[in-house]
Amino acid sequence: MKLASITAHRISVPLLRAFTTAVRSAVELETVIVELRDDAGLSGWGEAPISVVTKTTTNAVIASVEGPLWSLFASADSVEHALERLEQSREPSVARAAVDCALHDLAAQQAGISMSEFLGGQPAGTPIHVTTDMTLSVAAPEELAATARHHVSEGFDCLKVKLNAEGDPLAAMVAVRAAVGKETILRVDANQAFTPEQAITFIRGLEKANVGVEFVEQPVAAADWAGLAKVSGAVGLPIMADESVWTCADLDLLLERNAASMINIKLAKTGGIRHARRLADRAADAGLGVVVGCMLESSVGIAAAAAFASTLPVMAQDLDGGLWLAASPVSGGAQYRRSEIWLSPAPGLGITGLSWPRSSGTASSIGQ
């Protein structure tokens, strides 16, 4: 096998509704879908979603993919060799993640097995799915309650509520709990919105009101390790680190400071599946809980993340990003069925090509 070419597809897909967090509001997905072809005509797929969270731009990702990254592994004589070379790169993590996933997809196709099986999951012939939560955008308490009821009626039994420090976040969570009853799992994601003192007051309020929350995600600024540790030590609810943990070095800092009891692993943060596996293994060895999450991204990135998640202990993951899109930019691959993501039994990710309904895009290719 030799790698033949790489194409960076610039894609824009409208959202079904605005996606609002404490740090941004979006009405469309801007992403780069990477297509990596070998000399046998197989195509591996990966994705680099663009946002303030991924800390880069579309042009920068395309330049990285077609320039330094392609130059690094274009002459590799195997996918494994290419992945080893990719380890040397210091290009943006989201660009590395797209290439890493495309390489894994290509390797699984060459082996004739699904991505899940290739990563150590169940063998072919076994229908595989993972379960996801559903995210609620930042909104007023009454709107959050109505949205929560709607998603529960659709079959979601785990909701993640985005909050900010404005208004009354405790009242918002009380309203959501009243709307969905006791059986629905609720998660909170503050996206760095609180000071440590605000976070402690809010979380103690949740505990006192017996709202029933599984965990509170990234309550303080990503770089505020002391603040995160202060919150974790002052409350009873589990605290999850997301924006704080991108690498194994970040995880080491978290463990040194006892700053959180859970982490959210996203391929766009780690630089792909290989580093995500290391992070998950080290977190498990340290006794931390792990949830696999996503950026706002299409079914390309979701399929890779879901395949990775299928090899980890079963729990509701955080992979609803593709449900916000008005259309998928690709055909084939993983499919949403309400709260379930069913993986394709076909080799690799099972993606058969770009479809681009109601989306726009341009592409550029580099080949040998």
UniProtKB/TrEMBL annotation:
Binds 1 Mg(2+) ion per subunit. One of its GO terms (molecular function) is racemase and epimerase activity, acting on amino acids and derivatives. CDD domains: L-Ala-DL-Glu_epimerase (cd03319). Residues 141-238 form the Mandelate racemase/muconate lactonizing enzyme C-terminal domain. Its cofactor is Mg(2+). SMART domains: MR_MLE (SM00922). The active site is at K162 (proton acceptor), K266 (proton acceptor). Its EC number is 5.1.1.-. Keywords: Isomerase, Magnesium, Metal-binding. The keyword Magnesium applies. The keyword Metal-binding applies. It is an enzyme of class 5 (isomerase). Mg(2+) binds at D189, E217, D242. Substrate binds at R24, T135, K160, C294, L296, D318, D320. Belongs to the mandelate racemase/muconate lactonizing enzyme family. This is Dipeptide epimerase. The lineage of its organism: Bacteria, Bacillati, Actinomycetota, Actinomycetes, Micrococcales.
